[in-house]
Amino acid sequence: MKVGIIGAGATGLTAAFDAVRAGHDVTVLEASSELGGLAASTVVGGTPLERFYHHIFRTDRAMIELIDELGLSGSLRFHKPSTGIYLDGLHDFGTPAEMLKFPRFSLLDRLRFGASAAALKVFRDGNRFNSVRALDWMRRWAGRRVTETIWEPLLTGKFGEHAERISMAWLWARIHCRTFELGYLHGGFEQLYRALLEAVTDRGGKVEFDKPMSRIAQPGEHVEVGTADGSRYEFDQVIVTVPQPAFAKAAGIESDDLLWRNQYLAATCFVLELDRGLIPHYWLNINDPRFPFLAVVEHTNMVDRAEYGGRHVVYVGNYVPREDWRFTTDPAELLAHYAPWLRELNPDFDESWIRDWQFSRAPFAQPIVTPEYRSLIPSHRTSMPGVTLATMSQIYPQDRGQSYAIAMAHEVTARLGLA
User: Fold this and answer.
1) What is the mean pLDDT of the chain?
2) Are 198 and 364 in contact (CB under 8 A)?
């Protein structure tokens, strides 16, 4: 069949790989000039680096298997980096023992915190939590002090005004499916997407960049796709992997359709190249509500900075509404606003430490997973028989991640008989 795939991220490229191996004529249309979608990369010290921080877990089997299949296993290494939280100072928070020693907790708090986290590791079916609000569950089982200290700041930092409505199924997935060991594809995850691109094109497939979808319709047997530059394509089957608001707009679906009800937050992220280290941890959650950002990730506390020309690589990340000032402000001005808060993390910090920086935004990065969310998830099947939707919003309850996107691509291509 003649197969069109909209989007060259993890889902789109994996679906293209499956389909082209099965002998289909495949064309991938990507809106930007880059591979990888939310895992797209820039370059630091001559080495590709993700624009938004990325790692994988031991449980990410689909990702690990694809890395192996493409001959990249030699670059995948697992680490045990340190994690901390900032609340009235820096605190180690990366192991069960460190979590239970948190100074704000009484003995009872520690017992309830440990028992609630252990229970979530044991529960294998997150569907039991679909209609439960995360903070309600945590207040009941982990206790009010633990919830106010740990879970409320994290959910508020991520979801803002929606924090009280976030489903426990989402939080269960974040706790149940994660491991203390983190994997990184040394040399950057771009290697994976480059290998997929080469595997697709070597088998006769095409990947076209700077082709944002402007129209999609199926007036007859074939699916017609138009792009912003005026190009027109005709396919037997189309797999759409871009966020559903983009699909709905191109398909002419009314704004009150279910496809529009799933709300998204935007992501913003600085990549700072420093001449010295900022924090002692790889990952630092910011539990102080005064701060204007959610997390600081010092990538080179997990990956040797020699891979980046000796620079210390630090991410400063956020999830915000698209109308929020942290999404709309000029990046240089925003960085100047962040600098005093970085100094609060490290009193010695000076802006002269920043040798270079880059800033990225993504308008549809984080679905807001409320108890009603599951009922709003659209089917992979659309009103057009030749069009299949395979987007991040359909990954539930995990909601994001390269491995889940890869697994969904395999599922969709198998269901359509394309693999």
Assistant:
1) 95
2) no
Q: What does DSSP assign to residue 189?
A: T
> What is the predicted pLDDT for the residue at 255?
58
Distances (CA, A) of 53 to 41, 100, 257, 367, 390: 10, 27, 33, 18, 23
Q: Give 18-38 pLDDT, tens digit per residue.
A: 999 999 999 999 999 999 999
Cβ neighbours for 414, distance < 8 A, ≥ 6 positions apart: 18
Other Cβ atoms less than 10 A from the Cβ of 211: the count is: 22
Q: Give the other-Cβ count within 10 Å of 396's Cβ.
A: 19
List the Cα angle 74/80/85 in 5-degree steps. Answer: 140
Tokens of 302: 């997990």
Give backbone dihedrals phi and psi of 152, rounded to 5 degrees, phi first. -60, -50
User: 78: which strand partners?
Assistant: 183
Cβ–Cβ under 8 Å, residues 179 and 56: no
How sure is the predictor about 254, in pLDDT bands with cuts at 50, 70 and 90?
confident
Q: Do residues 90 and 280 make contact, with C-beta atoms less than 8 angstroms apart?
A: yes
Could you say which DSSP state residue 150 is in? Answer: I
Residue 294 contacts residue 267 (beta carbons within 8 Å): no
Tokens 């990184």 -> residue:
184
d(CA 349, CA 171): 34
Q: What is the pLDDT of residues 193-219, one digit of tens each?
A: 999 999 999 999 999 999 999 999 999
What are the structural domains of the chain? 2-79+186-260+371-415 (3.50.50.60), 96-176 (1.10.3110), 263-367 (3.90.660.10)
Sign of CA dihedral 357, 358, 364, 365: negative
Q: Exposed, middle or buried: residue 171 (CB in 10 Å: 0-12, 13-18, 19+)?
A: buried
pLDDT at 149 over 80: yes
- Strands annotated E in 237-282: 237-240, 264-274
Tokens of 201: 């094109």
